[in-house]
Design brief:
- With 165 residues, the protein is mainly alpha-helical.
- It has 7 helices and 2 strands.
- The chain has helices spanning 12-22, 24-32, 43-56, 65-69, 74-78, 89-102, 104-118, and strands at 134-135, 163-164.
- Strands 1-2 form a two-stranded antiparallel ribbon.
- Helix 2 (24-32) packs across helix 7.
- The chain is elongated.
Length: 165
């Protein structure tokens, strides 16, 4: 007779599945490279572990991550061969150092753009309305050169009498 074992994934299973479907760990590994050869867990997998840890073990120190994963099906969440004891403070800290050296904003932009492209979230048209610029005083008429058009429009400043750029 075959033994049946039940493991509780809670909401971590959904988050881990989304990370896997989007290929977050693989994308991070491709950008950051192999890193420290002594590390047992890749940088990408370490980031996914920190995401899961942050969703359930809030207000706890990084070195306690193995305790968080101690009663969870780590191989199901992070991949075959990964064990809670492998998520050491050195491994996770080294990953954070590599991310910092690469540049956090640059890394986010690189990975987010790749995901947006794969998921068909990009378009050849974008509308960005981040601020309202009112024009005061005299200005020259259009010189025929392509430039910002000054016209009456919606004013976030509630000043319909002023032209907007």
């Amino acid at each position: 007779m075959e033994e049946v074992k039940s493991e509780n994934l809670d909401h971590y299973g959904l988050v881990a599945a989304v990370c896997k479907d989007l290929g977050i760990a693989k994308k991070l590994d491709a950008v950051l490279g192999a890193g420290d050869p002594q590390r047992q867990v890749s940088a990408g997998t370490s980031v996914v572990a920190m995401i899961l840890n942050g969703l359930g073990f809030t207000n706890h120190r990084l070195y306690l991550t193995p305790q968080f994963f101690a009663n969870k099906p780590v191989e199901k969440l992070l991949g075959e061969g990964i064990q809670a004891r492998m998520l050491t403070a050195h491994t996770l800290g080294q990953t954070l150092d590599e991310i910092s050296a690469y540049g956090t904003s640059k890394l986010f932009a690189t990975v987010a753009y790749a995901i947006a492209e794969e998921q068909g979230l990009l378009s050849n048209r974008n509308h960005i309305d981040t601020t309202s610029m009112s024009v005061h005083g005299a200005y020259e008429k259009d010189s025929g050169v392509e430039s910002i058009k000054l016209t009456h429009g919606y004013s976030k400043d509630h000043r319909p009498d002023l032209k907007q750029a």
